[in-house]
């Protein structure tokens, strides 16, 4: 429930990050702008948060952005060149695989940027420059506030770089009102509890998203999986016909973050739960056969910050109703 405060703190800090030498970024701006590519490296929630920011960073910077899971990068010794900027994302700043990947990139000679929630962490000390997201302490094993803060940390920074004036102004306007929108969407708590009650005996859950909200689907599924101990998969909606559609029937709940695949899922009698903007239900599903989660509408690149919160609430209530510990998921520890 502290997401609005963490968002507000981060937004106030964003002016410092961009106008002064916050984390040493300013001294390396020229190198970043001339990078052949930007590589985001992380694990779990940190990876998903970077994935959400990727489309906008590509749009605003004009630089290709690639994604790497830290352990996979190490296993295959993936190529990182000196003219790349490697961005390492870790809530704790102590994630073992991410730190090993950092050592690998440093030996190659690439510029290494850190994004973390922990001042003085190994990641903060060993990278050339970086950003502290100021999300506040994450008490539980599963990160939530940090995920919500990572996204618009990158967005707030890159929106002030190579970008059209109109787009930058629209993002800035929406950023300033974001804490209020987060508070508004948290009012869906009771509605998400009712949804959790209806799903308590379900064995699996699919979440479809595309564009900015592919990462939302991935992160929402991860939260349900790690704390509610329920099988859940986040899937790219555009890939639905290439396998996942075979799973859909009247018994399988499917959350769709409003995309063009809704009609195809309805045709298979899918048990649909649709997340869409407030007042847009008739356009998304005219026959009213679906259950809706209505969220405030913001600029498209910021929508994942809003859309992930109902899924976090759903994961929380499923966990409580199933009798599990929200802060200490089975077999997991803080990394």
TrEMBL record:
<dbReference type="InterPro" id="IPR035490">
    <property type="entry name" value="GlmS/FrlB_SIS"/>
</dbReference>
<dbReference type="GO" id="GO:0006487">
    <property type="term" value="P:protein N-linked glycosylation"/>
</dbReference>
<keyword id="KW-0677">Repeat</keyword>
<dbReference type="InterPro" id="IPR001347">
    <property type="entry name" value="SIS_dom"/>
</dbReference>
<feature type="domain" description="SIS">
    <location>
        <begin position="28"/>
        <end position="181"/>
    </location>
</feature>
<dbReference type="GO" id="GO:0097367">
    <property type="term" value="F:carbohydrate derivative binding"/>
</dbReference>
<dbReference type="GO" id="GO:0046349">
    <property type="term" value="P:amino sugar biosynthetic process"/>
</dbReference>
<dbReference type="GO" id="GO:0006002">
    <property type="term" value="P:fructose 6-phosphate metabolic process"/>
</dbReference>
<dbReference type="InterPro" id="IPR035466">
    <property type="entry name" value="GlmS/AgaS_SIS"/>
</dbReference>
<dbReference type="InterPro" id="IPR046348">
    <property type="entry name" value="SIS_dom_sf"/>
</dbReference>
<feature type="domain" description="SIS">
    <location>
        <begin position="195"/>
        <end position="329"/>
    </location>
</feature>
<dbReference type="Pfam" id="PF01380">
    <property type="entry name" value="SIS"/>
</dbReference>
<dbReference type="GO" id="GO:0004360">
    <property type="term" value="F:glutamine-fructose-6-phosphate transaminase (isomerizing) activity"/>
</dbReference>
<protein>
    <recommendedName>
        <fullName>SIS domain-containing protein</fullName>
    </recommendedName>
</protein>
<dbReference type="GO" id="GO:0006047">
    <property type="term" value="P:UDP-N-acetylglucosamine metabolic process"/>
</dbReference>
């Amino acid at each position: 429930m502290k997401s609005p405060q963490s968002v507000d703190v981060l937004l106030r800090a964003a002016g410092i990050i961009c106008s002064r030498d916050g984390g040493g970024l300013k001294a390396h701006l020229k190198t970043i702008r001339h990078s052949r590519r930007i590589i985001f490296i992380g694990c779990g929630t940190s990876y998903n948060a970077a994935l959400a920011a990727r489309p906008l960073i590509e749009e605003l910077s004009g630089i290709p952005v690639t994604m790497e899971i830290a352990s996979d990068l190490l296993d295959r010794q993936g190529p990182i060149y000196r003219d790349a900027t490697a961005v390492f994302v870790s809530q704790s700043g102590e994630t073992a695989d991410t730190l090993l990947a950092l050592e690998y990139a440093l030996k190659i000679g690439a510029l290494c940027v850190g994004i973390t929630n922990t001042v003085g962490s190994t990641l903060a000390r060993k990278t050339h420059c970086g950003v502290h997201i100021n999300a506040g302490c994450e008490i539980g094993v599963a990160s939530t506030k940090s995920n919500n803060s990572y996204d618009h940390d990158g967005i707030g920074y890159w929106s002030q770089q190579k970008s059209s004036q109109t787009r930058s102004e629209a993002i800035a306007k929406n950023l300033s009102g974001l804490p209020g929108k987060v508070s508004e969407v948290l009012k869906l708590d009771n509605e998400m509890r009712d949804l959790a009650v209806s799903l308590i005996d379900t064995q699996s859950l699919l979440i479809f998203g595309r564009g900015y909200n592919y990462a939302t689907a991935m992160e929402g599924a991860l939260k349900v999986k790690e704390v509610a101990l329920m099988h859940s998969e986040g899937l790219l909606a555009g890939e639905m016909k290439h396998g996942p559609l075979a799973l859909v029937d009247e018994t399988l709940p499917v959350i769709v973050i409003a995309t063009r695949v809704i009609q195809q899922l309805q045709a298979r009698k899918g048990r649909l739960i649709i997340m869409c903007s407030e007042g847009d239900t008739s356009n998304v599903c005219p026959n009213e056969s679906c259950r809706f989660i209505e969220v405030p509408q913001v600029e498209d690149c910021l929508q994942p910050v809003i859309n992930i919160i109902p899924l976090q609430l759903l994961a929380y209530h499923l966990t409580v109703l199933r009798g599990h510990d929200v802060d200490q998921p089975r077999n997991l520890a803080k990394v």
